[in-house]
Amino acid sequence: PRGRWQPVMPGSDSALAMGMIRWIMDNQRYNADYLAIPGVQAMQQAGEQSWTNATHLVIADELPTLAGQHLTLRHLTPDGEETPVVLNTDGELVDASTCRQARLFVTQYVTLADGQRVTVKSGLQRLKEAAEKLSLAQYSEQCGVPEAQIIALAETFTSHGRKAAVISHGGMMAGNGFYNAWSVMMLNALIGNLSLSGGVFVGGGKFNGVSDGPRYNMNSFAGKVKPSGLSIARSKTAYEASEEYRDKIAGGQSPYPAKAPWYPFVAGQLTELLTSALEGYPYPLKAWISNMSNPFYGVPGLRAVAEEKLKDPRRLPLFIAIDAFMNETTALADYIVPDTHNFESWGFTAPWGGVASKATTARWPVVAPTTHRTADGQPVSMEAFCIAVAKRLHLPGFGDRAITDPQGNTFPLNRAEDFYLRVAANIAFMGKTPVALANQEDISLTGVSRILPAIQHTLKADEVGRVAFIYSRGGRFAPEDSGYTEQRLGNAWKKPLQIWNADVAAHRHAITGERFSGCPVWYPARLSDGRAIDDQFPIGQWPLKLISFKSNTMSSSTAVIPRLHHVKPANLVALNPQDGERYGLQHGDRVRIITPGGQVVAQISLLNGVMPGVIAIEHGYGHREMGATQHSLDGVPMPYDPQIRAGINLNDLGFADPTRTITNTWLDWVSGAAVRQGLPAKIERI
Predict the structure, then answer these.
(1) Does residue 53 sit in the same domain as residue 23?
(2) Cis (ω within 30 of 0) for the bond into 282?
(3) How far apart are alpha carbons 673 and 679 in whole angstroms?
(4) What's the half-sphere exposure (Cβ side, CA atoms, 13 Å) at 452?
(5) In the listed set 465, 491, 517, which residue is the last one of a domain according to the structure?
(6) Cβ distance 597 to 304 under 8 Å?
(7) Do 582 and 474 fall into the same domain?
(8) CA-CA distance, 521 to 670, in Å (whole number)?
(9) CA-to-CA distance for 300 and 308, rounded, in angstroms?
(10) Is residue 79 classed as helix, strand or coil in its secondary structure?
(11) Per-residue confidence (pLDDT) for residue 169, from 0 to 100
(12) How far apart are CA 571 and CA 564, in angstroms?
């Protein structure tokens, strides 16, 4: 009953957060005693559960190799250690690790060991200055939240000691998503709520059986080769280390802009993988093997950018897709290897967050796979394909003697069960005490009797009962109270919370040459070349912003289930009633939604739960494949259901970043994350 919805203009979350931070700074509502703790020793002496680098001094001058870096003892004396320096309460420069309390706000000159005189500031001072970039009135204008409400939020947030929390998730995925998420999470650091009841906490973690565990070595094997070299997505590598950069410098050119963005301190950009391969930057691929992947449906604008190029074998000679479904991406593959789905397969996973105790779930086939069988009787699947190809290529880590145990005995990896059941054995025996033995009732009531023969055939005799117990419980779960102590909630976070991140500040954007800010700061949603999205696509011409949200009935992979379409045949496309009146629309009218990347026709719902100026599109609908289109196999038409095509997909309205040389969709300029919140749009009544 005390909840209150506060809408924020898409892509402006950091304006709201930085406005709150400014008010918190101006009114000294931060947890000063907590933020003044400069190291682990001081944290322990104070009885705290976490600490920050708020007091660590940062070199503020724009100097090569020094700008944005923490001042260390090595900078002050030639034989000093690489230990951060703080200003203690007596105004002395001291080793942060030995100081109990340090000054929060520092700006002063320091002479380095080499004679240079530099300006240093504390991390919290840098954050304060970043928050002062705009006034509260200006932040309000950017995010659409009234100034009085920004103040009320900040005041309420800081009125409960440490029993307050804020989180971020997919709503941050805009053209400034990295700094959106960081600024929101920074609010937690300012009140010192990490690992405390009522605050935020680090999850309890998982039982990792894919390791060199108590029963089997599932991470090490003879001849193992680790990935090396440059990621094709240009991630976790600085542009300044590239051949392109060196060649430009050698030729007397400015190294900026690069041909495409680089992501020096983040990884995992599926958004850049495919387009980089198709464009051959930084290098082409000879083959792409995908598994359970559908970027043409899931990445805004990618289908329009890359579909025709993916069809060209000169750009990508071989595309093998392993999937249970023919989706928007796999439909273009040279070969599709049938895969098992979640009810037919083995696997393990762990909670993303929100669970303080250690937990790992174990998935096992509850029905027999419907895929064809291999010559040796295994269901065709991703695992069967990888094992067969690896054995044909004589790769290490597969075959009759692939897996070892701690005693040096060898075991086969010829089928999926060989891998997953031994991972389960590791999980069952981890820790001080292994799990209990399953009794007959456990096995019969849970259906584990179906897989008991495979367990008995694969594992050692003393492992069978405990692995059966794992599967009868659906995984291994530490006692709930194990995630709580009298002082701490969840796992301890042993590193300092980064009020100022020197790794971020060490790098420049590969297109603009602009140094990344080492702390949260307000940037408008922007394109690759630094241009604000609203400058490229003016609000006068594109007055609406698109967002997507998760459906309560449908997901991208469940569109094939007819009964879900009985509940909701098409997705919700919502507009605020004020906008309905503005455009002369009634509830249920059909409109054409237009973005720089395309247009779709949809039925509009007028809802007060959508911010004025926003169109909200429920995700999970609007498939072009997944059984929505008829295909033929050896000339025989395959079944299809046009209902799967119902509704629209926001990602069909994504668009190419017009400022990029190497074509790709609009991505967050720092992390390369897909932008699916805040797409410029307009509508026309049909």
Answers:
(1) yes
(2) yes
(3) 14
(4) 17
(5) 491
(6) yes
(7) no
(8) 13
(9) 16
(10) coil
(11) 86
(12) 11
Q: Are 39 and 99 in contact (CB under 8 A)?
A: yes
Contact 416, 388 (CB under 8 A): no
Q: What is the pLDDT of residues 287-307, one digit of tens each?
A: 999 999 999 999 999 999 999
Tell me if residue 84 falls in helix, strand or coil: strand
Helix (H) or strand (E) holding 440: helix 440-446
The verdict on 639 and 547 lying in the same domain is yes
What is the DSSP annotation of 508-554? B-TTT-PBPPSS------B-TTS-BHHHHS-TTT--EEEEEEE-SS-
Task: Please give the full DSSP string across 7-75, using - where no structure is assigned.
Answer: ---TT-HHHHHHHHHHHHHHTT-S-HHHHT--SHHHHHHHT-S--B-TTSEEE-S--TTTTTPBPBHHH
Q: Is residue 384 domain-shared with residue 464, that is, in the same domain? A: yes
Q: How far apart are CA 531 and CA 523, in angstroms?
A: 11
Q: Quick check: pTM over 0.90?
A: yes
Residue 284: give the domain boundaries: 203-217+268-292+339-491
Angle, nearest 10°, between helix axes 136-143 and 147-157? 100
Which of 491, 516, 546 terminates a domain? The answer is: 491
pLDDT of residue 353: 84
Do 482 and 554 belong together in one domain? no
- Give Rg (Cα) of the chain: 28
Sign of the alpha-carbon torsion through 362, 368, 373, 378: positive
Handedness of CA 437, 442, 447, 450 (dihedral sign): positive
Q: pLDDT per residue over 90-136, tens digit each?
A: 999 999 999 999 999 999 999 999 999 999 999 999 999 999 999 99
Pairing of strands 544-550, 573-575: unpaired
d(CA 369, CA 417): 14
Query: What is the Cα–Cα distance from 532 to 538, expressed in whole angstroms?
Result: 10
Backbone φ and ψ of 240, nearest 5°: -65, -15
Here the CATH number for the domain that contains residue 142 is 3.40.228
Domain-located, residue 378: yes
Q: 459 lies in a domain?
A: yes
Q: 276 and 396, same structural domain?
A: yes
Identify whether 242 is part of a domain.
Answer: no
Residues in CB range of 439: below 8 A, 6 or more apart? none
Q: How many domains does the chain have?
A: 3
Tell me the H-state helices in 218-318: 243-250, 270-279, 295-298, 302-310
Residue 331 DSSP code:
G
In a shared domain, residues 164 and 128: yes
Which residue is listed with tokens 């295909």? 631
One domain for residues 362 and 418: yes
Q: What pLDDT score was predicted for residue 269?
A: 85
Residue 145: per-residue pLDDT: 98
- List phi, psi (to 5°) of 81: -90, 165
Task: Name the CA dihedral angle for 71, 76, 77, 79, rounded to a multiple of 10 degrees.
Answer: 0
Question: What CATH number corresponds to the domain at position 655?
Answer: 2.40.40.20
Task: Establish if 33 belongs to a structural domain.
Answer: yes
Q: How many CA atoms lie within 13 A of 679 on its CB side?
A: 33
Ranges of the chain with pLDDT below 70: 1
> 514: how many CB neighbours lie within 10 A of its CB?
13
**CA-CA distance, 470 to 427, in Å (whole number)?**
8
Query: For residue range 171-183, what is the model confidence (pLDDT) as tens digits?
Result: 999 999 999 999 9
Token pair for residue 218? 């599932």
pLDDT at 1: 59
Distance of CA 400 to the CA centre of its chain: 37
CB 12: neighbour CB atoms within 10 A? 24
Query: Which is it for strands 605-606 and 573-575: parallel, antiparallel or unpaired?
Result: parallel
Query: By three-state DSSP, how is residue 98 classified?
Result: helix
Query: Around Cβ 304, how many Cβ atoms within 10 Å?
Result: 18
